[in-house]
Amino acid sequence: MRICADARLDDGRFDITIIEPCSRATLLRVFPRVYRGTHLGHPKVTVHRAARITLAAPGLTGWADGEPLGPLPLTAETVPGAVRLLGAVAPDH
């Protein structure tokens, strides 16, 4: 799924995709577009970019990558260049 289809790994920003309240019929009609990333053009969908975000909701727990982080509010901040990835280069065929 391409939920944040225009996200760039190297821009130091979170891409935050928000879907405004909509009917179940609208959601079912738009959801298949997530696989191509074309849902971003729908009027109920907005994308925001930020280097820092705070999520707050009374009584809820924040999760990341399938693991509970703790009770909200939680703040996340990007740290450009904090992770370096090493990868093997595929040989020419």
Can you describe this structure in just a few lines?
This protein is mainly beta. It contains one helix and six strands. The chain has a two-stranded antiparallel sheet. A two-stranded antiparallel sheet has the order 3-6. Strands 4-5 form a two-stranded antiparallel sheet.
How does the SSE layout of this entry go?
Layout: E1 14-19, H1 24-30, E2 45-50, E3 52-55, E4 61-64, E5 67-71, E6 74-77
Antiparallel strand pairs: 1-2, 3-6, 4-5
Summarize this structure as a short list of keywords or feature phrases.
93 residues; mainly beta; two-stranded antiparallel sheet; 6 strands
Q: Overview of this structure, please?
A:
This protein has 93 residues and is mainly β. 8% of the residues lie in helices and 31% in strands. The chain has one helix and six strands. The strands form three sheets. It has a two-stranded antiparallel ribbon with strand order 1-2. β4 and β5 form a beta hairpin. The longest helix has 7 residues, at 24-30. The chain is globular. The mean pLDDT is 88.
